[in-house]
Structures are given as C-alpha cells and as structure tokens.
Amino acid sequence: MNPERELTLADAFVELADTLADEFDVIDFLQQLSVRCCELLDISVAAVLLAPPGEELRHVAPCDPGEELTELLDTAAEEGPALDCYTGSGPSGTGDVTRVNLAGGVPAARWGAFVPMARRAGYTWATALPLRLRGERLGSLLLLRTGESPLPPTDVRLGQALADAAAIGLVHEQTLRAHRATGVQLRSALHSRIVIEQAKGILAARLGVGVDDAFTVLRRHARSNSRRLTEVARQVIDEGLLPVA
Hints:
Blueprint: H1 3-17, H2 26-40, E1 45-50, E2 58-62, H3 67-76, H4 81-87, E3 98-101, H5 114-120, E4 125-133, E5 136-145, H6 153-207, H7 211-224, H8 229-239
Helix pairs in contact: 1-2, 1-6, 2-6, 6-7, 6-8, 7-8
C-alpha cells in the first residue's frame, strides 16, 4: 500500500467514527462512505442501501449520481446481490459477501431486471457487502466494477471493514440520539414535578385541604378537561386557576 493510500484509508476510518457531533448528517455520512470506497477500492461505483426498521431496502448514497445509475439502484433495492446480501437469501444463505459475474452465470429468471440493466450500464461485476453490527442488519454496500476480473479479495476485505465501521458509527449515533432524547424527557419530567408540587401547595392553601387532596383536585380537573397535568398546574401558578374541589 502506498503512503497516499494509507493516509486516505486513515482519514476514511476517522470520518466513519465521527458520528457523535451535534450536526451529524446521516446522508452526508453515507455519501462520504461511498466516496471513500471509490477512492480506495478498484471499483466504478459504490452505493449504500439501507432498510429502516419496518421499511423496505432502498438506496441512499450513490457515489456517482445520474439518471441511469439511480434507475439501476432502484432496481437493486428490489432484486439483485444487494438485496440477497441484506436478507441472507444469496447462495451462502447467510447474508455474507455476494459476488456476481454480470456477464454470465446468473439465471435471468432470478434477477430479470437488475442484470441486463447493469450490463447496459457497462458493469461486469457486482459485489454486495453486509452493513450490519452483530445481529442488527442495517442494509448493504453495493460495489459495481467494469473490469474483466472480480474485485480482488483484499479489496473485498477492505470494503467490508469500511462497511463495518460505518455500521458501528450509525448504531452509536442512534444510541446517542436516544440517550439525548431520554435526557430531555427526564429533565422535562423533573421540571414538571416541581411545577406540580408548587401547584399542589397553592391549591392546598386556597382550598384548605391537604396536599394529597389538592393533587386529586388538580388531576381530576386535568382529566375532565383533557389537558396535561403540567399545563393545569402552570395555570394554577400563573393565572390563579382554582379548580372545584
């Protein structure tokens, strides 16, 4: 490996690990994965196909966008090596690397649209790599090649390493986003509790009842008016609302 390629490879893994920034953009992240694959691997096109939970596979980041390629990737999401790799329905049945000679050897009935479309676009080999972390499948990385020989094994291993790094980055970003959302919810809950406690004290003093009875009055008013308890408590504090005991 030449020094320049080593530096490009190092930059690629740093980029794929940098998903914890507040301004993280998943589309830009996957686009950069495609760009780095085209720089580092002996391929013509790299595209990422993802399947959000409960949704079908679809492409999100081609390295070289264009009408013909977009049409091919739309088809690749419905049939072909990328889908087989994602679902585990390829020859190995495990969702491992799926490498296909587009110039022959693929039953036309199996991929009736993908193969001839890829041939017309000039591609001779297709390699699909799983985009997954442990048992969680996120999608696949589709690598298209125009040469006479298949993608070299070393490039396949490097492509898989890049796909694995991207999957780890995506899962970490999802985890951080969920953690941040939980933190916001907890802070909101704590703030709401303080507001409700203040409203209970105000109602208890105004109605001449205990704080438990004041809370019952507060909750009954919120439910009977289809409002959030915190909203009613805030109205008690700010506007002097006095629910009927």
